[in-house]
Structure formats: C-alpha cells, structure tokens
Amino acid sequence: MKYILKGKVFGRVQGVGFRAFTKDVADSLNLQGYVKNLGDGGVEFEAIGEEKVLSIFLEKLKEGPKHAFVSDIKYTMEVFEDEDYPKSFDILY
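Given the sequence above, the corresponding structure tokens read:
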C-alpha cells in the first residue's frame, strides 16, 4: 500500500542545499513527489511510497544537509490512491 507524506520543514533550510538534498534522498528511496521553497523561509514537500520508506525519508530530512538546521517538521501521512501522480521526484521553484 502506498502513502503520501505531506509536510513543511522549518529552520535554516533555504540557501543551504536542502532541496537538492531532499531530491537525492527521495531518488535513492525511489519516491515520487516534490520539494519547494516557501516565501516564509520554510520548505514544503510531498513524497509517495511505502510507509516504512517514508519513515526513513522523514528521518533523513530531520538530519538535513551539512549547513542546514532543521528546527521542526510538521507533516501528515495518509493512504495514497491517485495513480496519475508524476512518477518522479522534482524540485519546484
């Protein structure tokens, strides 16, 4: 069963390679979805995959890349049923 993890990352997460880091982690876990910067300094993401894999993804995001500082992540996870979702993980601008 696939799930969709939707969330927002807070802290020093812009200008530190956080989106590229997130994409690399998602690609290594074969997840679908996106990551993008928000105007308030946070980063938004959606990731689709198996529940266990999404838990690994979330743990990696809490660590972040070398120069980032993640103060909090707010997220929801629910069953995913939309087969038309793009098959890649993309950085949106």
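The radius of gyration is 12 Å. Try to locate this feature in the token string yourself.
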